[in-house]
Amino acid sequence: MESNIPTKKIKSSEDLKFWFTSDAYYYLTQWIRLLSIKIKDLKNTEECKISDTVQNILNILDQLSNLIDETPPDNQPTRFGNKAYRTWTNKLLEKSEQIITTFLPEKHSDYNSELGVYFLDSFGNSRRIDYGSGHEINFVCFLFCFYKLGVVTDEDLPALILKVFAKYLQVARKLQTVYNLEPAGSHGVWGLDDFQFLPYYFGASQLIGHKTLTPSSIHDKRLLKDHSGEYLYFRAIEYIHQIKTGPFFEHSPILNGISNVATWSKVNSGLYKMYLDEVLSKYPIVQHCYFGKLLPFTDEIRKKREKKFKESRKMKKKITKKEK
Amino acid sequence: MDIDKIIEVLSKCQTPSEYEIKQLCNKAIEILIEEANVLRIVPPVTICGDIHGQFFDLVELFDLGGSPFETNYLFMGDFVDRGYYSLETFLYLLALKVKNPRRISLLRGNHECRQITKVYGFYLECVKKYGNGNVWRYCTEVFDHLSLTALIGNSIFSVHGGLSPSIKTINQISLINRKQELPHEGPMSDMLWSDPESIQNWGMSPRGAGFIFGSEVVKNFNRTNGLSLVTRAHQLCMDGFQYMFNNSLVTVWSAPNYFYRSGNIAAILEIGNNLTRQFKTFKAAPKEKRIVKVKMTIPKYFL
């Protein structure tokens, strides 16, 4: 099977409507739910099975982090973000061909370039020197591709979040702070977070059964510090404190509101609904999503479902007729 | 309608009644509908960039630039979204406009439209404060009537975003039918979405709307139209403002400490009688001047 280079497909409100019924939408939403389930009650420090594929991604992320150290911010006049970020991106692009060939085993190597598109757009936009939830989606799509091809299985999923996604966040945050990246498409005080969303969703799942930490525990600076290494949610809140000024209730009112929710389970399920509504339904974000062979902009699943539904209705009618 | 009472209420960052807002918006439309796509402004005038609902920082802006009852102001759009007080901010400026239409000039930004405000906070804010979407509807109708550009003293051109490949002369702007929801493409969209970039000509914009344009484009536009400067907003500036292309274009940004993390200062550009230019900068309002009416509400997804 030959792979397609993924392209952007959502260009109008009709496309947006189609997106909700598409196979890609189905795969992506089920994927993030599955990941959330697989890390329930697990700390970042949990011992996980780490396959060669997973280890390779971790190594690549380490490389990217080192690349930041090798590309310090410069003193060029700038509107806002540091232009050395463009240098970092160019260096990444130079290495990209070599990196991309290592993603998949030989039998799936045709798909390397498809994964490459998602991977390379996971770290921000070099023209605008910004980063946002759209880049985070790309990284999650990148991980999905491994699963779709069967190169990564259910056993690997905890490592994908607790080790790989956690490390991805480290790299993303390092880029944001070192190069002063602008939040791309942030909703300001009306959004969850300027840069990320999924660390909160996955992070809440990690805490579902926790005996002592509750959603309101995020207000305790000591607890934040003690647990930020173990839990994505706490690390995300700690990071906000590191980069924002002023009282938490003022700069992060949504997260502040969520701290009043009774259980992590409710936080987790609420964040899923919010993600679908506030991220995956918004044209300004999804207009930048890529669709290829692995996350296709087709609606085969919906068609199959409708066909099954029609067939089962026919059967029911037949049975009712017979009974009469 | 008692415009002075409405201004008084808004100046304290409080909101008038839904009925008063409807009256204010209707009156504003009567005024805006008569304005051209290119406002002709006689200097002196103080040019301001994005505000994004940062009401208390707007107060700092007026403290620095002078009372809006005595000083001429031109705001280049993006009054709403992202901040707490988009409604108070926009309505305050609108009320000042209604009170003294020749003194206050308001341009449309890319956030002054239905599609964007439904995503970036203004709609949510209206529903939160009034329980329904009526005031949002009244405001978005006003957005449709906001002018697109300004020409100050025949020499300084102001627009929210930037230039359009479809617009070579300022006269062409007059042909646009602006009284509509912001289209996804075309000259009206371009002028509110485009960004200058260190290239020579035109390029695709990573925003997904508008274009990026370079030094030759600005040089030609300024020469063709007899301009000395293009002023625009639309992009965050660490220092509040940034010149490009040999000082022939400047970005002015008026929302300090954007996102509570940017640490940026904000700026206004004072154009004097003889078209002299002076930038003034300001920081975010100090804590004691900011009121945050916080309700510990749990977002609807978690109920």
UniProtKB/TrEMBL annotation, chain A:
InterPro entries documented for this protein: Phstyr_phstse_ac, PTPA_C_lid, PTPA_sf
Keyword Amino-acid biosynthesis found: no
EC number: 5.2.1.8
Location(s) in or outside the cell: Cytoplasm
Swiss-Prot/TrEMBL keywords: Cytoplasm, Isomerase, Rotamase
Catalyses which reaction(s): [protein]-peptidylproline (omega=180) = [protein]-peptidylproline (omega=0)
Residue spans crossing the bilayer: none
Pfam families associated with the record: PTPA (PF03095)
Family, as annotated: Belongs to the PTPA-type PPIase family.
Function: PPIases accelerate the folding of proteins. It catalyzes the cis-trans isomerization of proline imidic peptide bonds in oligopeptides.
Annotated protein name in UniProt: Serine/threonine-protein phosphatase 2A activator
Organism: Anaeramoeba flamelloides
UniProtKB/TrEMBL annotation, chain B:
Keywords: Hydrolase, Manganese, Metal-binding
PROSITE patterns, per database record: SER_THR_PHOSPHATASE (PS00125)
Protein EC: 3.1.3.16
Domain Serine/threonine specific protein phosphatases: 107-112
Molecular functions per Gene Ontology: metal ion binding; protein serine/threonine phosphatase activity
UniProt cross-references to SUPFAM superfamilies, sorted A to Z: Metallo-dependent phosphatases
Catalytic activity as recorded in UniProt: O-phospho-L-threonyl-[protein] + H2O = L-threonyl-[protein] + phosphate
Family matches, as InterPro entries: Calcineurin-like_PHP (IPR004843), Metallo-depent_PP-like (IPR029052), PPA2-like (IPR047129), Ser/Thr-sp_prot-phosphatase (IPR006186)
PANTHER family according to UniProt: SERINE/THREONINE-PROTEIN PHOSPHATASE PP2A-RELATED
Family listed: Belongs to the PPP phosphatase family.
Name of the featured protein: Serine/threonine-protein phosphatase
